[in-house]
Each structure stands twice: as C-alpha cells, then as structure tokens.
Amino acid sequence: MGEFDLIARYFTRPVRRAALGVGDDCALLAPAPGMQLAVSSDMLVEGRHFFADVDPEALGHKALAVNLSDLAACGARPLAFTLALSLPRVDETWLAGFSRGLLALADAHGCELVGGDTTQGPLNLCITVFGEVPTGQALLRSGARPGDDLYVSGTLGDARLALEALLGHAPLPAEVLARARQRLERPTPRVALGQALRGIASSAMDLSDGLLGDLSHILKASGVGAHIDTYITSNLIAEKAYLSGENGHFHLEFIRQCTLAGGDDYELAFTAPPARRGAVAAASQASGTPVTRIGTVLAEPGLQLVDAGGQAVEHRYASFDHFR
Amino acid sequence: MGEFDLIARYFTRPVRRAALGVGDDCALLAPAPGMQLAVSSDMLVEGRHFFADVDPEALGHKALAVNLSDLAACGARPLAFTLALSLPRVDETWLAGFSRGLLALADAHGCELVGGDTTQGPLNLCITVFGEVPTGQALLRSGARPGDDLYVSGTLGDARLALEALLGHAPLPAEVLARARQRLERPTPRVALGQALRGIASSAMDLSDGLLGDLSHILKASGVGAHIDTYITSNLIAEKAYLSGENGHFHLEFIRQCTLAGGDDYELAFTAPPARRGAVAAASQASGTPVTRIGTVLAEPGLQLVDAGGQAVEHRYASFDHFR
Known about the structure:
The structure is a homodimer.
Chain A: H1 3-11, E1 27-29, E2 35-45, H2 56-74, E3 77-87, H3 92-108, E4 112-120, E5 124-134, E6 149-153, H4 158-166, H5 174-185, H6 191-196, E7 203-206, H7 211-222, E8 225-229, H8 230-233, H9 240-243, H10 252-261, E9 268-272, H11 277-287, E10 291-298, E11 302-306
Parallel strand pairs in A: 3-4, 8-11
Antiparallel strand pairs in A: 2-5, 3-5, 6-9, 6-10, 7-9, 8-10
C-alpha cells in the first residue's frame, strides 16, 4: 500500500464543519465570529510515551486524548486536528486499530481530522488540535490569586501505578492492573469540564507530567504559591481501597509519589475564588466530572505540602522532564 | 539543560500578532474577520528527508520552508506555526543552529512560533503552519479546466541533482554541487507568488514529490488531463548550462528525470485560463518570481509528454512515495 492509499483508507472522511479537509495542500478552517482559535501540538514517541507493544486502538485514543486535554485546559471546544505519522512500515492491522481508536474519540468530541502527513521512519505521532473559545475567555495559567481555592478533577496517580506495575516495580492483581491500565492507556480528556469552567476558574492547566511539577507552572505564571493537603490528594488514587488494604508494600510514600508526581493523569488542575464554590460545583455536575478541592493559593511563592495532622510533608518529587 | 530551559532559550520569543504564544496549554490565534485559516502539517525524519550530518541551520530553514510552501500553494499569508521536536539528546550547538535557521525564515515571512512540544527520541521535526486567506479565495487543486495554461514557478530538478551527487551517483564540480545543494537544503517557498495568484490561477499546488506525480493530484482532483512540453521543462534545471556542456554522461534522460520527477523543488505548479496570461505575468513580476508556461490542460484524462519535435515522450517516472 502506498502513502496515498494509506491516507485514503484509514484517515480520510467526509468533511463536516471544516471548509476543506484532507487532500489539498492545506485544510481550511473558519472560526465563528467572536471566537479565538486555540492550538496545541503534542508528539508521542515509541519507548518514551508508550510501549512498543501497546494496543494500537488505545494508542490512537491516547494520541488525541492528550491533545484534547490541552484544549480542555483552555476551556476550548474541539473543532479539528491534523495528524502527522511516521511509521516503520505499513501494517494494516495496526493502522486499522490505531485509526479506529483515534477516530472514535474524535467523533465523540466532534473533532474532525482535516489533514496531516505520513512518512516512513521510527514510530512517531504528532497531533495538532484546534478548538474555539470566545475571545478573551480562554482559561490561562496566569490568573491564580492568593486566597483562591485549588482543585483537581477526577483521580490522580493510577496511570503511574499501572506504569510501575508494567515495568515490574509494583506487583498488582490482574483486575487491579486492568483498571489502572485503562487510566494509563485511555485517559479521559476533561473537555466538558474545561468549557464549564469558563468565567469561573481563575487559572487552569492539564496534568501530564505530575501534579506538583505541572502546578509549579501555574504558580510561576501567576506569581503565587500554594499549599496542598496531601491527605486529600492521597485519597484521589482510584485504587486507594486496594492499596491501603492488606498490601503493606504499598505504603503511603508510594501513594504520595503516584498522586503528587505520577504523570499521565490528564486531569485538570484549576483555581477559583472561594466565592465561586457553588459555581464550581455546578460546573462539575453539569459536565459529569468530579472535582476535589485540594488546597489554597498563597501569596508567598513555593509549594507547601501538609498532612492530615497539619504537619509539613517533606517533598522532593520531580516532575517528568523529557531531557533529564 | 531540561525541557523547559531548552524551550525558553531556543524557541521562545515575545508574542507579536498571536493572542497568546509559547508557554500555556494552547496558543490562541485570532484570524481577522472574513478570513479562513489555512492549516498544514509536515513531518521530517532523519534519513528520509535529510541526512544525519545536514547543517542544522539549513534544516531549520527547510523544516519551515516546506510548510510555508503549502501555504503558498493555497494563496495564504503566513501567520504562525507550532514546532514539535523529538531529539536524541540536547546538543546546544545543534539547537542554536537549528533555531537560527528556523526563526530567520519565520521572521522573513512574519510567521511566529506560538507553541509546540519537545521530547527525547529519534530526530523528528513536525511543524504545523497557519495562514490566512480571504474566505472563498484559497487556491485549490480542483479548479483546473480544459484549455487552461499550465505553469511552474522558478526552476526544477536541481534539488534532485544535488541529491544524486551527494549519494555518489552523479559527480559534480564543487561549485556546481554547492549551488544545487542550496536548492536541496534551502528551498524558497513561493509565498508572495501564491498570494499574487489569488483570483487568477484556477488551481495550484506545491511541488514536493516531483512535477509529474504532484501534477497528477491536480489532474485527478480536477477531472482533467494535460500535455507537457518536455523541451521546456528540461530547460528549467538551473544547472542546464553545465549539464548540457561537455558532460556527456549527463544525457537528456537524466535531465528529464530530475526535472519531471526529481522532488524537493518546492515550486508552485498552477493553471490559469489563456485569457489571464497578462495577469499571470503581472503576478510573477509583482512577486519577483519567474514563472514558465509548460503545457496545457486537456479534457481527456492522462498526462502526455511531448518533445521539441512534437513527438510523444515515453515516461515511467515515478513520484516519491514514502512507503514504496
């Protein structure tokens, strides 16, 4: 199969909202009046972001999900995306699975594939996603103010738990691993929550490299600090019941590592004034997405971790850095 | 150097036209009223699109140039781009050269870097470029009509000539190779010509995989055929004087191969009605870009090549296919 047949078979669909889709030199997008276009690019590399033997359908899902998560963090509505794909060889079974996972998530969000590129080379997926957001209403990292509440959506740390198990560092029963692995391989981008938080959240970002490291970007951009209640965040790992059962080797420190610095969560972290707690709860309910208040924004820079007894928690949790 | 230092040092500049640039979850673009956004993605892989030892400054130039060439083919004005970069290691000398070449071309076209991604992995560059074009005025592949003139801009075949020399297939004197290599490594995207052809050209595309193969996309999209005068196209190789001198081993067949199926030309191929020849000449002059009429669009499908004596030229020139 040649390059153009491959594109036609697996990646070309009728254009819906875009003015022009796959097959010309450019795609054409026409944002509605009063809308800004939100744009984000993510690149996924074999061995770095996924295992060589990952289910291609899950990989298709995740490649788009991590990009939709960036749109969610801005409060943008997904519109379209481009896919650039470097493949070692044409493997139709792999391509069929990959495009199925990719396009199922795209369809679920009304986000259409409008163009891209295919080439031969080491496996590499680069997606650029486009969304629209009313002018001036995008959620930014820079708006957190002292006294704001600090929230995260959903659960934290299960993706890292799965990764540790898959690397052989943390033995898990099959059914626990299967659940955690879903969080690692099929993250849920919080697109509806992000849009519901427009006009409510003072800042937001998505969690890809671990809560503490990612949060430091909000704090730096906003010129503030924060304290976090680690007895709350430690409860946000979905497998808490299993981990805190009779499994002595999964001690508190491991749970803290997973929840505070695990990475690959693709949840939203955001801030909002205490006066907006009702609005945050309504946004959570309207979007069907649980949110948890985990701390407070402080005027003085730095991140303070506090345990259930009010004691400071020592931390040296490094966030994920692709070059360290 | 970590990922964020790398981005700050080599790829972050003050935002100019974009509403929000590098450093948040998304960049924000605000197309002007009445404008559509033209979008194109290209991925370049080491060993496939460039040699491992290529000058990083030239690579930075080329990575953006091939994307700007897609905007040119649509008649769009460059606005912004994202860069996703997979690097085996942080090599500051390489990064400094790469970003210098990339940003020099970006500045020359007023096209700003608004975001992207960096990761560790086999060298891979993925750029997504954004341009604006008045609604309904984009140049498409599908508008060629029987009787239209067929044109190409600039020169053809020198990039392939350089490639053959670098692969050891075609010995060239150093100064001839140096000139041809400029065409291979530092192509000139025909951005001004593309915009000047809006409202004049009936169809257009850029030439990346070789004239005949690329032209077949216009013909297919437009439901037409074409004839091409190969004695004209064979004269479009810049090194014609050298090649047709005392160098018997560079015979006509080699020149035809380079000009008709060479690849990496990044010129525009376009069609326009004969009544618009004056307008095409004016667009060429206004944009400072030579154009040459090389043939005619025909109603019957297929591509006919004709030599100086009016004889049909047999051809089996394959265009570049990344998976063949």
